[in-house]
## 1
Amino acid sequence: MNRWCWLLLVISCWTVSGFVLSGRGHIPNNGDPAVPHQTIRVVSMAPNLTEILFALGLDEEIVGVTSFSDYPPAAREKDKVGTFWQPNIEAVVATRPTVVITLGFAQQKNLAERLARIGYKSLTVNIETTNDLFEAIVRIGAATGKQHEADEVVNGIRTKLEKLSALIEATEKVRVLWVVQREPLRVAGRDTFMNEMIEMAGGENAMGPTVYKYPPVGAEQVIACRPDVIIEPAMGQEDLSAQQSSVFQHWSRFRNVPAVANGRVYVIPGETVSRLGPRLYEGTETIARCLRPHLFEN
Amino acid sequence: MKTDAMSRLLTPGRLIVRTGLALVVLAAVMLACSMIGSEKVSLKAVFGGPGARATANPDYEIFVRFRLPRIVLACLVGAALACSGVVFQALLRNPLADPYILGISSGAGLGAIIAVISGLSWTLWGRSPIAVFAFAGALGTVWLVWFIGRLTGKFHVTGLLLAGVVVNAFFSAVIMFLTSIAKADQVHATIFWLMGNMAEEDFLVLWIGAGCVVGGIAALFYISPQLNALSFGPEVARSVGVDTARVRVLAFGIAAGITAIAVSLSGLIGFVGLVVPHGVRLVWGPDHRQLLPLSAVVGAIFLVLADTLARIIVAPAQLPVGVVTALVGGPFFLVLLIRYSRKVSWLR
């Protein structure tokens, strides 16, 4: 039994010494901006954040973006720091950022915490609704010294959206089914920014309130919700043309649904409508064109 | 009892030399892997120290703050899982046994997903709620399985295994239910955890983790002669004077403990606990006095290598390390199995 006591003793001593050592060897946390940074170096951890940064005119200051940041084209040239879900913290640190912009998702918040532990500043913004987007643009502008540009971007988007709503005012709402995924079928529910865009474009989500944000639905619900228009966003040129060529054949089993009967199933490029960023207006206009093509004919 | 062949197989001198050599290889692998990564790091720059704040030294920061802690973590987790695999295989006398066979994985997974869904955000000694809940879930499940196993009869191996399988399946179902009602971003966070997620850890976490894991392995080494006897069956063990009940409880508790620590540090990393013990057994023989220390070191080497691959294969992104352990470990193990199977009697 003696050697067991020894083992326990050694483990306890080791643990205690760990507490002592870690208490002593603590490097002072340098969250303070004691050294003024002449230049801003900013890393974006999501494609829509990258778009916001470029929209604020930070082309030179961006030193790192995530792998799928593909807009504007200049973003492709930037150093990559991993993906949205699997950020590479070594690559982030290697870019020597003065501020890292992350979204509020668990994986991203975790990254921000790990960076904070060794004294890197990060800004976490939540972008889930259009109001969140405007707020985030302003906050990012404030953190990067681009307050003025941020206000301009926000006002620009707002003005264009108001013009759009003036154009489509007073006409009846179009019922839209927003297909996120064909197999198995999943659509956008009410609690999504797609829903907001549909409403701004003068439509209404054919799907009623649901538990899920992006509810999986059966054929029954598709028929029951009677959409006037079905919209399928597709990412990338290949998916777009593949889905476009098969769209009517795929939906033909829903011949009773008004959207299918009238040939109003649209496959649209997904970049602007699936990513809540500064191209909000472009996305909304794309949707509005699907809902009321006649308004945009000239 | 001792035959010539037995004494040729393992002497204290041989054990020390082999373990020492394995440790040297481990150190070399750690050093080599710490030089590999998506960012180039020069050792010369690392030894320059952290540097002044304004012109901080990125090489030092990446090496000391991220890469080294992660490699040390891989070592600890690999050693813990491999040793725990050895013990479970001996106790259950089942070559398919691994550290997760009695439900630790699903218990830990359930704890983790509950932590994610409830959105807790405190930390306990630098550990996130996920880690704490996973640890508690793992130990709770092991206790539950052990308890059910006892109800089926005094250490009935089949009863214990079945209890483990059923509890595992049940908790997996609960996990699936919870993921299906959780929000998308929460699900993603959990999925990466379930596939084994390595990240750098605080000094204190690594220090205490190292103490517990190394201590646990030392304790298992103490009882390795009894484990040798037990692997011939409880009757044989009792006949040579082993207190089987006590040895079982000890071995079981310690193995479950170090597995729970490993799981709470890095999520569910499969395959290490199954492949490494078998590999070591196939190459160097089944004596637990040697099997335990060598499995610990080989497990550490294996996981350090796997994690390094996980860091660089899809750089700048990273793979979950569990993917790599299965992809690399599977074929490697099959080669070992074919080449060395004649050495081990139960495979013939």
Note: The radius of gyration of chain A is 25 Å.
## 2
Amino acid sequence: MIEKIVLRNFKGIREGELELAPLTILLGGNNSGKTTLLEALFLAPNPFREVPFGFPPMEAIRLVRFLHETLKSLDFRFLLHNYMAENALISCKIRKKICSTVFLTKSDEIKVYSIESASVPITLDASSLASKDLVGFFVHFRDIRPVKTGFFMKNTLLFQSYLVRMGWDYIRSVWATVVNSGASTRVARTVSRLVHENYLDLTLEPFFGDEVAPYVYLDDGRRVRVGDLGDGVRTLVTLMLLYELVKPGVLLWDDVEAHMNPRMLLFVARWVADLVDKGVQVVLSTHSIEALRTIAGLVEDKDVRIYLLTLERGVLKSKGLSLRDVEELWKAGIDIRVGEPYLL
Amino acid sequence: MKLYPFMTVDSVVRNIVRVSRWLGFDVLVSVVEELRCFIVIGDGTPEDEILALIAYHLNSVGKVIGIAKPEFVGIKVFELIPTYLVQKVGSILVLIDQEDYDVEVLIKEVEERLRGHGIAIESRGNKGRLVVYDCERGGRRFRLIVVINGLDEIPFERHMVEDHLLKAAKILLGEQIGDVFSKSRDAKEAWKKLYQYREDIYRKLRNDKKLLETVFPQQVRAMRILEESC
């Protein structure tokens, strides 16, 4: 389990740290650092590893860049605080060791190091890192050069509804595994419990013309394209398939409530509770008090940590709360989602 | 004075926004860095609307005050004071209706409830329906301002925030009120019967600070004390 994450100069967070639990739920206003924390955790095992999005699969670092594109933008400097910091750090504490990813800028490139140490590195300069494991570097901040694959720590999987399309590009590319492992049937039948139709399996078949599309296969023989299902169902089917394929040690889910009706949220809560029971660490972000209550309420108190976050001039501030605290404050007329000026 | 709502999904914030839009002012803020002072509304509407009007008039210093409407109503809101002390608090202003209590009995009841929660209190001033305490619990010191809504001059057994609105109606409408008082069981019912004049009365309260101070004496004074102590 990742017990703690420490960030320095990473994206909008100049300085911040957070202790994590088997289930961690992040709340906070817009621009409070929730997504940045999830992305840091996603990059931590190796920013250059291939992740299950796109075909050919993208490197984690490119996926994060993709998530921040408004217009086409190739530069990786967005990883550095204010786009100008000379270095950035993502450190994860796992038992007694610290796994760190260090980004160092030098003239027109960013070098990336992965190091393991007993404490969070204090000085971040090329000489102190020279002998460390170089995992890759960017030239002109744009391209990725020599890359080591594999993980430097437990794998993490980032998900948000915006990634459904890219997730399917990957799922399609490993379709034989999806079908022969039984994942397609398991996911279709599980999700079927949430809708008024009986899904038996997922298929990949031609639509019109010669292009194939993923479908749910119904008990009356009909097929409905996954893309034509409601957004909530589509999101869940995609995430559950990706989870089955990757089996990450840590699941990171941004805006968990997106497109979810309360019945589906309850299902998500049960799924998350099952994952936590199996030893998968889950970190979620949400703006929904309903999602928070439903999901946190199904996991034992000792395994849940709820954080209210805010970013003040780049410094991440957090307040750890239990579900009971959240309920008490609600009763007192304080919705913790807007309670930062008082609670932090 | 600006107000920061601690709930955005309840009727309090909707009422404040609605009244502000009618009357053409904006007393709500969405972002503030730190808040250590807040108002706890014990009874809901129309306290929220009246607080918006008072905040609009107390606009010289530009302080931001939080506003919370708990699930508990009336005197029960004092049960929640320990919850507010999870963080450092400067001052808390609590507004409750007098209902059919005698004012002194109600104040005693408030004090007993506070002491029952281990809160040491020291009265800093008692002006009938406005009492100010310096409080301490577990090493945490804070100021508690208690406002009891109601006016003796309104001839009903139960006193409440609507008493104040009826006073405004009496001043502004005079004879037009007719037999509303004699034909109503309480101030709430009487105010309901005058609902058609509500917008007009609010508009006049918005335009006339003196009138506001006359109609809501304890509330205006309390908000000033709150502002000064924050």
Note: Chain B has a mean pLDDT of 94.
